[in-house]
């Protein structure tokens, strides 16, 4: 039942104090003629309504959430506590600099830590998400070539195992996208790369580990090939939990990188935000970074690079996410950061090893923080698809892995256990995956019916996608009277 369908006409929840300024209504013509349809509910009803809705949702605090590429890991609660401190939470972006020196120190310190981790020289926190970071990073690449009068570089090379946002960002910046296929081992096919690289190459975007969960074995050669052709190299570091503290994009020949603080650096995410996709770059690109970088000179001050590409988000980005990332970095420290990525990789390899005798792995070699399996054999032999297994997992209280992605694997399930899960949780999930496989073999009909233990059972996904109902239909509740009271 929706909130609009609850309560009674005239029931109120008074939380606003009496108005203490003269009421000034808009002109008669500008006034609303029909009811606003605000719910008429008591505080008790509204509280129950949202509690009920929250129970229907599933988050990392409910259970295992191995959604590949999304890093749905546990977010330490101390991050929330620090970010809620009034000195961080109750400031205004237009406050004079001398009143927010501590906050500027947070930006500067986090920039320094993350530059150390990525091997970059400077970093902006303005971008609000990973894809936004890609867009910003590509603007730097574009500005670089333009500043050298090099107008013929119009192409960005993107391997087919890249995250889907990579080609989209490149084309938003106005580049044409050259897609190259993966080689036998799931990495970039060097011969194919050499074929397309040339004087028109602006750069290459590499998702590493790629969307197959694999570290590219030829990464140094790849960056070399691009640099020799005069292009620049972009590292999609959204999944840095696979490598942080172990190896640095800057040392592997990358000029620019984005991170997803809302994945790797432990901020709750999902449902559309908020996020933070900082972009780090080498010195040769730093002069093009968006404005409002923090400099240190008798205290902290904001400064804009001379040839700045401008502003990609208001002020300094989502500041409180940077506070959470800083807290996470301080808590883990120099020892904890590489430890976290070792566990991310260990957990994924453990699950893969315990499942590969039944499920087919897309690339049965050591993986990084996630692995991809293909259910095409099960589909052929027993009519059980990746979707059916995903629905089966729901009945066991497990959030499904990423499905039907990457696109170059048929019937794909992409599993990312993350570093924050215990061995017991992994073992339990392995048992569930294995029992679903058995059910698929012996009793496939059960999986076609799944899920049966959830608040809604199998949805008609096609109808849901084709027949969108995005607004509530009030037509049977319309009243003619002017209803400005609500
Ligand atoms: C999640 C992800 C992105 C996009 O990040 P958003 O914050 O969702 O825009 C880009 N690349 C990779 C590899 C990712 O996993």
Automatic annotation (TrEMBL):
It catalyses: N(6)-[(R)-lipoyl]-L-lysyl-[glycine-cleavage complex H protein] + glycine + H(+) = N(6)-[(R)-S(8)-aminomethyldihydrolipoyl]-L-lysyl-[glycine-cleavage complex H protein] + CO2; (S)-malate + NAD(+) = oxaloacetate + NADH + H(+). Residues 31-294 form the Glycine cleavage system P-protein N-terminal domain. One of its GO terms (biological process) is malate metabolic process. The modification N6-(pyridoxal phosphate)lysine is found at residue 263. Pfam families: GcvP2_C, GDC-P. Keywords: Oxidoreductase, Pyridoxal phosphate. Its cofactor is pyridoxal 5'-phosphate. Residues 340-437 form the Glycine dehydrogenase C-terminal domain. Belongs to the GcvP family. C-terminal subunit subfamily. This is Probable glycine dehydrogenase (decarboxylating) subunit 2. It comes from Lachnoclostridium phytofermentans (strain ATCC 700394 / DSM 18823 / ISDg). The gene is gcvPB.
């Amino acid at each position: 039942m929706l909130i609009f369908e609850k309560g009674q006409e005239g029931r109120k929840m008074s939380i606003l104090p009496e108005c203490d300024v003269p009421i000034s209504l808009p002109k008669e013509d500008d006034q609303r003629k029909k009811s606003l349809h605000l719910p008429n509910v008591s505080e008790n009803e509204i509280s129950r309504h949202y509690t009920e809705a929250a129970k229907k949702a599933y988050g990392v605090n409910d259970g295992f959430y191995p959604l590949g590429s999304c890093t749905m890991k546990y977010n330490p609660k101390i991050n929330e506590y620090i970010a809620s401190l009034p000195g961080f939470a109750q400031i205004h972006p237009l406050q004079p600099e001398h009143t927010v020196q501590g906050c500027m120190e947070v930006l500067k310190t986090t920039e320094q830590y993350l530059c150390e981790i990525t091997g970059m020289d400077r970093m902006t926190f303005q971008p609000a998400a990973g894809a936004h970071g890609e867009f910003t990073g590509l603007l730097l690449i574009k500005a670089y070539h333009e500043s050298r009068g090099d107008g013929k570089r119009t192409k960005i090379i993107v391997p087919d195992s890249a995250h889907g946002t990579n080609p989209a960002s490149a084309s938003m910046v106005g580049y044409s996208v050259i897609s190259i296929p993966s080689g036998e081992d799931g990495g970039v096919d060097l011969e194919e790369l050499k074929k397309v690289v040339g004087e028109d190459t602006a750069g290459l975007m590499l998702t590493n580990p790629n969307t197959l969960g694999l570290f590219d074995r030829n990464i140094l050669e790849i960056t070399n090939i691009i640099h020799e052709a005069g292009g620049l190299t972009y590292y999609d570091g959204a999944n840095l939990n696979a490598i942080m503290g172990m190896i640095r994009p800057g040392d592997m020949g990358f000029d620019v990188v984005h991170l997803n603080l809302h994945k790797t650096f432990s901020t709750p995410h999902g449902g559309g935000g908020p996020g933070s996709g900082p972009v780090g770059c080498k010195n040769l690109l730093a002069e093009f970074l968006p404005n409002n970088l923090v400099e240190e000179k008798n205290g902290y001050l904001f400064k804009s690079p001379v040839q700045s590409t401008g502003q990609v988000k208001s002020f300094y980005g989502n500041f409180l996410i940077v506070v959470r990332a800083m807290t996470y970095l301080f808590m883990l420290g120099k020892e904890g950061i590489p430890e976290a990525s070792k566990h991310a990789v260990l957990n994924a390899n453990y699950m893969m090893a315990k499942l590969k005798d039944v499920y087919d792995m897309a690339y049965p070699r050591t993986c990084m923080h996630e692995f991809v399996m293909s259910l095409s054999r099960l589909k052929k032999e027993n009519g059980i698809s990746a979707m059916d297994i995903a629905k089966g997992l729901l009945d066991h209280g497990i959030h499904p892995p990423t499905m039907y992605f990457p696109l170059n694997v048929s019937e794909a399930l992409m599993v990312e256990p993350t570093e924050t899960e215990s061995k017991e949780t992994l073992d339990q999930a392995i048992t569930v995956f294995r029992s679903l496989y058995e059910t698929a073999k012996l009793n496939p009909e059960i999986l076609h019916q799944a899920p049966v233990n959830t608040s809604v059972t199998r949805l008609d996904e096609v109808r849901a996608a084709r027949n969108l109902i995005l607004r509530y239909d009030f037509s049977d509740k319309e009243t003619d009277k002017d209803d400005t009271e609500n």
